[in-house]
Amino acid sequence: MQTDPQGSASFSAESYFATQPAPASLDNDRQRVRAFVRRQSEQGNKVVLVTSGGTTVPLERNMVRFLDNFSAGTRGATSAEYFLKAGYAVIFMHRQFSLQPFSRHYSHSTNPFLDFLEIEHKPAPNESLSTTPEITVTPEKREDLLSVLTAYKKVHRDGTMLTLSFVTVNDYLWLLRGVSEELSEMGRDAMYYLAAAVSDFFLPRQKMSEHKIQSGKGSLHIEMDQVPKILKPMVDEWTREGFIVSFKLETDPQLLLPKCRQALERYGHQVVIGNDLNRRKFEVVFVSRIAPKKDPAHPAATNIDDDTFTESWLRLSEKDTHTREIEEDIVNELVRRHRTWMNNGR
Amino acid sequence: MQTDPQGSASFSAESYFATQPAPASLDNDRQRVRAFVRRQSEQGNKVVLVTSGGTTVPLERNMVRFLDNFSAGTRGATSAEYFLKAGYAVIFMHRQFSLQPFSRHYSHSTNPFLDFLEIEHKPAPNESLSTTPEITVTPEKREDLLSVLTAYKKVHRDGTMLTLSFVTVNDYLWLLRGVSEELSEMGRDAMYYLAAAVSDFFLPRQKMSEHKIQSGKGSLHIEMDQVPKILKPMVDEWTREGFIVSFKLETDPQLLLPKCRQALERYGHQVVIGNDLNRRKFEVVFVSRIAPKKDPAHPAATNIDDDTFTESWLRLSEKDTHTREIEEDIVNELVRRHRTWMNNGR
Fold first, then answer.
1. Is the ipTM of this complex over 0.90?
2. Quick check: A219 and B222 CB within 8 A?
């Protein structure tokens, strides 16, 4: 732990894990991941870790107030469905109560399932006058529900999805490290799709107030420390061979590409997917690094700039936004790149 | 607007509404409330406003980060069901994506409805070899679902629930004022059940950052202003005759009763329901004020202490916590008190 010029503590990943407490469920979660990874390996399945939803930063130990990051979990939940469709097994690590694959189609706010269930009074089988009420599905909703339900049942039958949950940024960091270490067993066959919106700041346990912060004493002052940049140890230590995809969300279009490139430079992983808050449903950009093609005979002759990036934009046409989801294209592109990554390792 | 000794702005309700922008949906929401109140009045229904869920305090105008208050919306959603059952019409004003009456029983995380739907392949009616898949409800889940669905359909058929939503504390404050003013038309026939967990602090629009706050520049400093205490103008101006119930949630048991009494003293409304964060599912306390019985012939002889409070505790036994919900008892008690309140006004 170091103190920056402003006097606040700056945590390395190492000092973070040495000083902040692990969540109580961590050991159990790791065991579940271990068993899942073993089973999928035996069946020859590739595995993708999908992280999804925002993280909270509690301001009190008895949590009443917290800082949060905007994320309903749409990107993660939708992508998980397409990964499953593409034959991947999925570890779905999501913020508690954020959207989940399959049930996401039936948000209680926008498409409540109670609205398309009906009560039908059918005559009882013994032809008496009494009727037994039956619950049926509204005909016009039947086809869509049948398709979602069929995919859902298949995933449960095949055991190809493991669901884990987190709430705070501390839960998230510990769980990500644990899952990555377990999943690193699969080497290049594992993909990491880090779609969760993780807080950049946190309040160390040691600085938290025990009880609800009382109002009535003027304004509220909060000072938070930076969350350590965990992509670096993830690439260097936790899972050296994994195919790692991170996300950058910005609201200022000028910053999007520079921030994506900066992340690749700093952490050395495979892909950054950039998206603008207001355009994310129909436009993303894949940023990756062109590895210098070293000529083994003339190592000194390599003059391709090590910091050359490729950027490919993926856009849905306006017509398509109403009938298709951009996550289908994102996943297809990543599956293709992951295949190349695996072949390069052989 | 005044500046406190620490130099931060302190807003009165008046200066708040004069300086912070109204949400775009406000006029439309008010019109919906007006029509709803008129229809319920014609039908002789009492109306309760139930507020539910937490409010957010955005740190950026293009919201990525926000301060939030812990609340899934269980208290509000559950109570709304019991108010409907007791014959009240309900204006359910909730934080977007928080729990809602009826669908709350089928949380996607803990009781996903896809789990109790089944696909049955029944022979087609023409007795050919093809089958048409049908969606049916798992037998052991049928009775519960039928009961929830029946109540849900009845409310929709009768038009006795109006749902409104908010996200930020600013949305909430404007909407609460608007709904209260519309509902004040009903005088003593209206109840206000303020179960939402409202932030005590906010960031004035004028102080917000336009874009996502960038990390990488050391720690994060936030300074927030106090949200004006709106119960005071609510009681004095927005709805003078309404039966107003507010909630106090604390984590320190020592503070619970003093804070409840303080709220009644300051705002002069009817009931404060106090609850401890960890005991709220099975224990609450009703705090109200004993009005001094003034003798009109001898006004000076009134010597009952104006600040005498009654406290009645409501507790579920351990056995009951598994089969009953404390909101049923809370609502029954309030319906009884509201009846007295209405009679006293006649």
1. no
2. no
